[in-house]
# Entry
Amino acid sequence: MCIRLMHKFHHKAKEALDDYREQHQEQTEALITLLSQLVSGWQTSETADEQLRTMGALLGADGDTILARCEAYLAYAGNHYLPFLLPLIRPHRKLLLDIVAFLHPTSTSADTALEQALAFVLRHRDARAPRLPLREAETASALDLSWVPIRWWKAVTNRPRRDLPVVTIDRKYLELCVLSCVVMELKSGDLFVEGSEQFSDYRTQLIPWDAYAQAVPTYCAQVGIAADPAQFVQDLHTRLAETIRTTDAAFPTNTALSIKRGEPVLHRLDKQPEPAGFAVIDQLLTERLPECPIVDILTDTEHWLNWTTAFGPLSGFDSRLLAPRPRYVTTTFCYGCYLGPTQTARSLPGIDRRQVAYINQHHITEQKLLEANVGVINHYNRFRLPKYWGSGQRAAADGTKWDVYEHNLLSEYHIRYGGWGGIGYYHVSDTYIALFSSFIACGVWEAIHILDGLLENRSEIRPDTLHADTQGQSEPVFGLASLLAIQLMPRIRNWKHLTFYAPSERFALDHIVHLRDLFTDTVHWTLIETHLPDMLRVAMSISQGKMRASTILRKLGTHSQKNKLYTAFCALGRVVRTIFLLNFISDEEMRRTISAATNTAEAWNGFVQWVAFGGEGIIRQNNREEQRKIIRYNHLVANLVVFHNVVAMTRGLQALVDEGYAVTPDIIARLAPYKIGHINRFGTHELRFDQVPPPVVEELRLSPRPALREYVPG
# Structure
């Protein structure tokens, strides 16, 4: 909350600067006009006396006023919004200083200049003098100001350059600068808070070096990389060089790629035609899906899967329910469809809102919802039908915005989507079932959480290739994913503006003929070789569950000169991303696969929001844990609907095959289980546990019975 508060103050200060400039636009234009007249008069005057008379006539008796306006303008030049920050921070100064004094941020490196500056500020927090001496009598040493950013230097020291001597410093601006830098370094991992979960010292979560030395040969053999840094760099160098040669040699025959004015242009993929007879089969299948309320879907799947067995009292001292299955189904329907306890009690006879709320609080947790989802996914994986849609080796990660009340302390404004809320982040298999879900803040770069879904997935579907959109990629993510044996294949918008890295300048001159203009930089191989053990130690710690991938990526997502691990992962990620981009522009089938996977994830986003029909897409809970539970409730209900649809589609397709329709694998591959036309979401619902559904048929036989009906187009 301290970090968010500081970001909010900086944002408001920038807005205040914009308003100030807009209000004083006329004065600025008047000063520019005066300058233009002075220069014009100076150039047209023939003598020095005439030049002085012209300048005197233009300035007149307003010289002091003009000078004051120029100084006022220069005070905010260069986007200098810091003066507007002072009045915003002043009411919260004591609170912010109390927070940092209590948390006591500690440096994770040998550079402790900022830590010492924080101690200096706290020692003088009760001072009233506007300026403080740089050298304290108590410590007999001068404060180290090497950490002060360029933007803050003049405000803190009142010196235009760093090479000028500094004797005193501005107390207020020093406090502001320290608080702002503490926030940034907590995010980057250069500072840590003892005992914190999110801002702890990530080094303590890494495996010990002796354990690393014992396990690294086995780990590298499993991942398929060399444990020796020199050999690793050599293999990576060879792989990059071969990919560049292959792509460059294939350029003359690559009809989809062209170079125009030094910029690569990749032509749009042609739409694949529908298989013959697809429209007829799809229409017949849709018509034959039995209509059913969404509550019946939950009860049917409970009969088949017993997914409510994952729920139960949080401790042995809690009272047990007499009829747990209907209660658990009701609670899942309530929160998964965003109805809320009150509306659920109105929709289902004999239900009290307090009963639903009690079960949610005392019987169902995030982990239990995850376990229920895993059971659904494992049973789903037994069906034959999803095997026509995908192998299960690929997954796509994407987020969708869920609205949260603006005045909720956990709500953030989303720039891309607009409005206040959070992001439901999902990992969707190429078989259309969602494997993992999480709830993250709008201001977080989605790439931070992209690997968590695969690493924390406990189902039988185990993808090793991960797709995403532009938000799901960055250089550190590419580097870390490669060491975790995860093939990252995102769909990147404006990929042509990314930097392509050559192995060396000499290689670019000697071996690249057609695509030389693409490569504008070279790889820092020494950095990768030097820090490979550190990077492998991080990857092994994540694979062993010592730390989450998002924990380290959150710290690697903020650039820091002190964090050498950040620069090392960036260097590795540049190589891996360059190889991916070269394959992307040369392989049409890869582009189709990436596009299909990301389209599946986007279709899932619309599907889960359709399932959450009761709350109009608004999460009304103000507790972060409850918000995460709501996302997983919704995820569970959506997966159950997909499971129910696959059961119905398997029966429908089998009936069409038995009736003689030509149902081919190509037709089945174009279908999707996100069908919603036959589901009734509204009206009064009734739990019918006395109505037992037909047994599940997992196999799909494509060979018809005798007397095959001939397919007639149209």
